[in-house]
Fold:
Amino acid sequence: VETGQWFRGDEALRDNAVPQGFPPLTAVPQGVNSMLLTELMPTKIDQMRGAIGLDRGFFGETLPLADSQPGGIGMRAPCAIEYDLNQQFTQMTAFAAIINPPESDICLSRQRGETIRFTILGDNRKLAETTISWKNTTVPLAADLTGVKKLKLEAAPAGGPAWLHMGSAWISPTLWRNPPTTAAEWVRQHTLQETPTPAAAD
Structure:
């Protein structure tokens, strides 16, 4: 933009975008049994392009399950996010989701081949992992965090041109001190029916 010129953006786009969230906490609070991970400031964010979305998608869009599952981290895979937990929590629960951004259509080759792998790591050890595709776009994932000091969440393209097209998100990522059930049971209870596959573009 030349000197003396200003770009004030598009009012319609701003009205349709979900406001960007900001973590209010820089350290794990005492005396809480559970908290959304979006409330805690990450210690490291490694994303190939752009900024992560807090409580919204990468492009500012509403996250899947927003009506029933609060909070979320919108990303553009590959992306890795790290948090200091200092052994304060024993479990994490979340829904892993793939999202088609408003900039692109889903052609047949994308629909058949694109996948993203979501991984929860504690102190560099793999604790839980799932790979999802357009056949089932939102999947529950949980991990035992007992004794974990550093939590790392990864989303990585695992098939097709996902690195170019696909958005992804951790929906309602929640940390628990005294979880109501085991990680495996939480996943069983929250396994969703198969999500309808988006129609492919001609």
About this structure: Residues 27 and 49 are 26 Å apart (CA to CA). Residues 193-197 have pLDDT under 50 and may be disordered.
